[in-house]
Amino acid sequence: MEGKKELHVSDTLAPQKRILHVLTEASSPIADTAATIIAGQLERGYRVAVASRPEVFQGLSAQHSQLRHIEIPSGPGPFDLSTGRSAFRLHKNYRHIDIVHAHGRHAAVLAGLGLTGLPTRMHPPIIATIGRDEDDSVFGAQHSIVARTATAVLGTTERVVADYEDDVAVVQRAQLVRTDDDGFPRPSVSAEKMRRRLSADDGRMVIAVPIEAKDTAELTEVVEAVVALGKTQSDRRWRVVFTGRGRVRSHLEKLSHALDYVTVAAPSDAVNIVNAADIVITSARMTGLDSDDVMNVGRATIVVGNERLARAYGPQAAVANTAEEIGRAIAAYAGSPAARISGGFVLRERVRSGNRDHLTQTLLELYAYAENINA
Fold it and tell me: pLDDT tens, 277-300?
């Protein structure tokens, strides 16, 4: 995006910064994640406040001697007179706030309305975590407010990400706290059966690529690395499977006709193919899966993108940004079954542990990035 400043991976929000979380309800995966984030930020010494109704504040179970509560009357229902009162209360407090994180679309709208009448130089960056579980009857109006006022949107689904990606500076999949396996997509086909379907049950190395099929630098580098496999690593047999949805999917299909080891499979089979794979290549934007979903399957993973993105996967994942780096990472994993097994195990344990520290750190880096954009 024009004017966008670079974020160095060492950047994190300065400890003296003041963070305001806006919530209108306390019983959802988004609210559960908010409670985890708030607790993590308080433990790190940040000055944190929550704007909500009293019952929502109590429901967060995030009590701390340094946690401040700002009462606003709005609930998750239709907009009414309480909306204006809530927005005005936020407006009055914004001059004392450095970062606003709104949890839920309704909360994001309130946070955006709170900017009304405030000089631009005093606008705090607004991070909005948005789900699709809210009333769509007023979606258009709410969307326009969030798109106009949010610095970053964290969408709980790919549909939400797509809704905002053309309008907001930073749009990513939200990381949500998950307590059991029910929150993750499950393979519907065994790995053995999927490999047979892919004509890859002959011992060849299977590489799953669930990256969106869009014209991005990341996908371009992956394709170049895949093409090079037939030349630089011709001593091995491969099956590379693309499952992403997007405008350049037809180009990937043409590639599959040119290279007999490349396959383009249905996006709905993404989790089945990742489960059957030896190696997975991921990026910030995938179809049908997010980073937690991939980690939960537990396969050796190569992350294409910036190092901040790679931190979601932890130090066990390989980070590669050029075709050459991707090729080297593939070769390293292909040559070491032990590295593949241990890498996948660590990833699965990482996502199952709930990793509050990682979630907290990732958001603090995003907050710093949002400040950088707003500056």
Answer: 999 999 988 998 888 889 888 899
Q: By residue range, what is the domain housing residue 103? A: 18-177+356-374
* Tally of CB atoms within 10 A around 269: 22
In total, how many domains does the chain have?
A: 2
pLDDT digits (tens, 9 = 90+) for 98-157: 999 999 999 999 999 999 999 999 999 999 999 875 555 556 788 899 999 999 999 988
Counting as low any pLDDT under 70, the low residues of the chain are: 1-10, 61-63, 78, 133-139, 178-183, 308, 352-355
The sign one gets for the Cα dihedral 84, 86, 89, 90 is negative
40 and 142 assigned to the same domain: yes
Chain mean position to CA 277:
22
Using alpha carbons, select from 261, 266, 294 the residue that is nearest to residue 280. 294
What does the alpha-carbon distance between residue 41 and residue 54 come to, in Å, rounded to a whole number? Answer: 21
Residue 222 lies in a domain: yes
CATH code for the domain of 270 = 3.40.50.2000
Residue 141 domain flag? yes
- Threshold 0.85, pTM exceeds: no
Axis-axis angle for helices 81-94, 105-113 (nearest 10)? 60
